[in-house]
Amino acid sequence: MSWLPGAQQSVFGKWLQRIVSPYLNLFRIIPPIGGIIDISPIVAILALNFAISGLSHLVLLFL
Questions:
Q1: Collapsing DSSP states into helix, strand and coil, what is residue 37?
Q2: Which keywords are on file for this protein (predicted)?
């Protein structure tokens, strides 16, 4: 949302931030690289992808 000017202040931006912030805050403990680049969203997406993949394999294992 930071790439689009004014998107964070829109109704959709505020709604999306309210939904996503609790999950992203779990990964905010990772310090930014060089003090500039925040990789916590990338780590959060990878963790979510890993969890979904693991759950789907468990479901297929028991079917």
A1: strand
A2: Membrane, Transmembrane, Transmembrane helix
Tell me the sheet residues that pair with 33: 37
Residue 40 lies in a domain: yes
Q: pLDDT tens, 14-23?
A: 999 999 999 9
Integer angstrom CA distances of residue 58 from 6, 51, 55: 42, 11, 5
The whole-angstrom separation of Cα 24 and Cα 16 is: 12
Nearest to 44 by CA among 58, 55, 30, 59: 30
Q: Which domain holds residue 16?
A: 11-62
